[in-house]
Design goal:
InterPro entries: NAD(P)-bd_dom_sf, Sc_DH/Rdtase_CS, SDR_fam. The chain has about 250 residues and is α/β, with parallel strands linked by helices. It is built from eight helices and seven strands. Helix content is about 45%, strand content about 15%. Strand 4, helix 4 and strand 5 form a beta-alpha-beta unit. Helix 1 crosses helix 8 and helix 4 packs parallel to helix 5. Bound molecules: NADP nicotinamide-adenine-dinucleotide phosphate (NAP).
């Protein structure tokens, strides 16, 4: 059997209506997982569900819209997944926000709190809701999509970077707490990826050049190039790996 096989596994992927989250959900379905597609917009989620079910059969994917800012929404996401598929083996905390661009001296308290709420506390909530059943079954993989921003300083996305650095520490702490129960927690740290989220950084040719000229691979990444890391972390291929941050950035941070 392939080490990457996910047959019989159930995965929730937040922010999976497009971008990195969609690619992760699609590739997990390719490996045999049942996947839960979630974002704020029901219609966008349903479109992804129809595409996945069209390829892999009805019942492979379901849509459960949820705003990561809302604890009630996240509880519903977990409850509906349990109702539909009976369990959760893999949790991918992928959705995040970056509502402020500029130096940290200019950020309002409200903006700073929003970033910490959506990028750190909401991950903590969702993990609190899902981890107990994983601990009981002594099996589970939790994946947080962080960013190489959490490894570096920045004059413009410092607030976001603080939140992404906190995600690395969240994974390390929880890896220690959950390790004795065979529940693993890891981060993926993508570099610049061609999605709506980072559009401002790659659409303008001058910015694109700035972003890629120091990169060993001389280009930005595609969402599918992050999906393989998520399949690896969800599967038997990574059963001895926990608490780590997997950098996937075309070599930028080296
Ligand atoms: N793109 C990059 O260069 C890059 C680099 C490093 C790290 N990352 C990280 O990768 C992750 C995914 O980003 P992406 O680039 O794939 O972004 P994206 O293409 O803009 O997709 C974001 C997804 O999250 C959903 N979403 C946004 N706000 C949400 C909320 N409050 N509640 C629930 N869902 C929400 C969006 O759908 P709705 O709008 O329908 O809610 C969408 O499905 C983020 O954690 C980001 O920090 C991205």
């Amino acid at each position: 059997m392939s080490l990457f096989d996910l047959t019989g596994k159930v995965a929730i992927v937040t922010g999976s209506s497009r971008g990195i989250g969609r690619a992760i959900a699609e590739q997990m379905a390719v490996q045999g997982a049942k996947v839960v597609i979630s974002s704020r917009k029901a219609e966008a989620c349903q479109e992804v569900v129809d595409a996945i079910n069209g390829k892999h059969g009805n019942g492979t994917a379901i849509a459960v819209p949820a705003n990561i800012s809302s604890k009630e929404d996240l509880q519903r996401l977990v409850d509906e997944t349990n109702r539909a598929f009976g369990k959760i083996d893999v949790l991918v905390c992928n959705a995040a926000s970056n509502p402020y661009y500029g130096p940290m001296s200019g950020v309002t308290d409200e903006q700073f709190r929003k970033v910490l709420d959506n990028n750190v506390i909401s991950n903590h909530w969702l993990i609190q809701m899902v981890a107990p059943q994983m601990i009981e079954r002594k099996d589970g993989s939790i994946i947080i999509v962080s960013s190489i921003g959490g490894l570096r300083g920045s004059p413009t996305i410092g607030v976001y970077n603080v939140s992404k650095a906190a995600d690395f520490q969240l994974a390390r702490n929880l890896a220690v707490e959950f390790g004795p129960h065979n529940v693993r927690v890891n981060c993926i740290a993508p570099g610049l990826i061609k999605t709506d989220f980072a559009r401002a950084l790659w659409e303008d040719p001058e910015r694109y050049k700035q972003s890629t000229q120091g990169a060993p691979l001389r280009r930005i990444g595609e969402p599918i190039e992050i999906a393989g890391a998520a399949v690896f972390l969800a599967s038997a291929a990574s059963t001895f790996m926990t608490g780590q941050a997997m950098v996937v950035d075309g070599g930028v941070t080296i």
